[in-house]
Design brief:
With 118 residues, this protein is of the alpha+beta class. The protein has one domain: Beta Polymerase, domain 2 (2-Layer Sandwich). The protein has a 6-stranded mixed sheet with strand order 3-4-5-2-1-6. β4 and β5 form a beta hairpin.
């Protein structure tokens, strides 16, 4: 089942984020939103460029080892202010805190179910 695959992918990503101590992780469920580009957005932030890169690398390695998935597209590594990892059904946004505060990505999806990850 495809939905279970997206949920497993999202969980694997979250574990990769937690492994490198990503800050303020949220999962945005977009499955009930018409026209959504993916099934889930996962948003978090790091404390510096070095930290956001480490978090990004951790997710890629964790997901590859855990479920054998590779990232389709990766953007933002030049300055590491906002790194996007696109896995198709799940898109990961890793911000530095000031950029996350500025773009307020979560507020754009107010109709979606948003889960804060402890």
């Amino acid at each position: 089942m495809r939905i279970n695959n997206a949920e497993k992918l999202a969980q694997s990503i979250i574990e990769g984020l937690q492994d490198r101590k990503a800050v303020d992780i949220v999962k945005i469920d977009l499955r009930k939103i018409d026209g959504a580009v993916s099934k889930f957005f996962i948003v978090c932030n790091g404390t510096s460029s070095t930290h956001t890169m480490a978090v990004s690398d951790s997710v890629e390695e964790y997901v590859r080892q855990d479920i054998g998935e590779k990232v389709w597209r990766k953007q933002g590594t030049e300055n590491a202010f906002w790194i996007i990892l696109d896995y198709g059904d799940v898109v990961v946004h890793i911000f530095q805190e000031e950029y996350r505060d500025y773009y307020q990505l979560e507020s754009l999806w107010g109709d979606a179910e948003i889960t804060k990850i402890d």
